[in-house]
Inverse folding.
């Protein structure tokens, strides 16, 4: 019987595991992290590299360790202080490589990889009727007292409707496709169109503009914003006052989050790179949409909604991911365990403990992290700092459960 099984070994799952072990709330024997990748954090590292990200958007105090200045100490201790990049009107931000190397150091320090089971979870059941949960995976079944869902931003890439008729062999890719290889795509002998209007599209366009001419196609004018949301939303008291006062599961919570998030925006330092590429003649920015695309012997013939067209093109999509609640596991768990879903299919959580509520109003043994917890954790739930907020809630609601159990068995056992 495990104390915790965390589903997903990305930024959130790994950060939570680190906090749980660091606090003494559980041991390696009590904890499993189920994730299909070879290594923890692989999902984030791959995505970041696929889009040509150089630095994080968040500051140096946002990382997976428990001490706020851990990443800064790591950087200076390894003579890498210059990888904390100065930013106007914002704290220093780490380079991607510094962030990942620090995360690997944290993983090694706590032996987090020992808790990692390579596998994909297909179902959660409660054979003991509420006393425990069974996590079914392609690597076997795991019985546990608590499950934490840390499934990521969305189950699969979003494809625009016009892509449905484009054959698989055509030069069309989504930046979050598992098999997307930016190196191979830079070798395309024709024009490259990057579709999207946010930071991912901008970074991808900048990366390709170093090799070839790129058209960045956005549905809207490009907008700048430094952070993904106002830093007030890091503060739990602010979240309680401005989010938890709205009805749980309501559309009003989603509306507040949408208004608070700077979605589809580009930070000024990436906008500067776009402007430089445009001034060099390597990049064109178009506002519009693709109406249809046909495969030809020379790449794609692309027609735009305004009547313009271009031939011999490859199209790279940076159009995001499907909604997090569309993950098949979310429906399976809700149906099997009788859990409540609110507006847009999001889990309805206990705002204090992050336990997914049953339809009878009681707390289940399933806890939720990341974007799926947005209606309780707020606009920065999906971000690195959101993982820390979730860890604090989990530790506060289930303090030192392993030691408590031991004490119950053996009151003389030192705590
Ligand atoms: C390119 C990029 C840059 C970003 N930059 C920043 C930034 O600078 N600052 C910031 O705060 N945030 C940033 N974010 C947002 C956020 O921090 C990241 O998306 C982060 O990876 C989210 O962590 P996560 O654990 O929720 O998801 P992920 O890191 O994607 O991990 C989810 C994991 O769950 C696994 N999983 C899913 N289903 C199952 C299943 N059924 N069984 C087992 N495992 C499963 C997946 O395989 C995956 O490994 C960025 C996001 C992206 C994409």
């Amino acid at each position: 019987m495990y104390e915790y099984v965390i589903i997903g070994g990305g930024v959130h799952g790994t950060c939570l595991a680190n906090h749980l072990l660091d606090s003494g709330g559980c041991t390696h024997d009590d904890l499993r992290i189920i994730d299909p990748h070879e290594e923890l954090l692989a999902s984030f590292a791959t995505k970041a590299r696929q889009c040509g990200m150089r630095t994080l958007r968040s500051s140096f105090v946002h990382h997976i360790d428990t001490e706020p200045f851990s990443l800064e100490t790591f950087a200076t201790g390894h003579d890498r202080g210059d990888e904390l990049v100065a930013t106007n009107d914002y704290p220093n931000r780490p380079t991607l490589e510094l962030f990942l190397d620090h995360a690997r150091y944290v993983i090694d320090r706590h032996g987090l990889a020992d808790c990692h089971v390579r596998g994909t979870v297909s179902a959660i059941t409660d054979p003991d009727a509420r006393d425990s949960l069974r996590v079914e995976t392609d690597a076997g079944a795991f019985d546990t007292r608590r499950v934490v869902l840390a499934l990521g931003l969305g189950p699969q890439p979003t494809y625009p409707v016009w892509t449905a008729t484009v054959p698989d062999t055509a030069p069309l890719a989504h930046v979050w496709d598992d098999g997307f290889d930016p190196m191979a795509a830079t070798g395309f002998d024709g024009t490259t169109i990057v579709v999207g209007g946010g930071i991912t599209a901008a970074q991808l366009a900048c990366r390709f503009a170093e090799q070839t001419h790129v058209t960045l196609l956005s549905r809207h004018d490009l907008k700048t914003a430094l952070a993904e949301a106002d830093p007030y939303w890091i503060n739990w008291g602010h979240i309680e006052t401005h989010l938890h006062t709205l009805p749980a599961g309501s559309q009003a919570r989603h509306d507040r989050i949408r208004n608070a998030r700077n979605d589809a925006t580009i930070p000024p330092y990436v906008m500067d790179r776009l402007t430089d590429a445009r001034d060099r003649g390597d990049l064109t920015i178009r506002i519009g949409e693709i109406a249809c695309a046909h495969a030809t012997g020379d790449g794609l013939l692309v027609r735009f909604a305004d009547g313009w067209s271009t031939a011999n093109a490859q199209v790279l999509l940076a159009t995001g991911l499907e909604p997090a609640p569309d993950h098949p596991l979310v429906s399976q768990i809700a149906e099997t365990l009788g859990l409540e879903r609110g507006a847009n299919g999001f889990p309805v959580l206990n705002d204090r403990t992050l336990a997914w509520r049953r339809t009878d109003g009681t707390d289940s043994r399933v806890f939720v992290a990341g974007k799926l917890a947005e209606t309780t954790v707020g606009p920065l739930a999906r971000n690195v700092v959101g993982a820390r907020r979730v860890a604090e809630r989990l530790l506060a609601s289930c303090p030192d459960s392993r030691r408590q159990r031991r004490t119950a068995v053996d009151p003389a056992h030192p705590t």
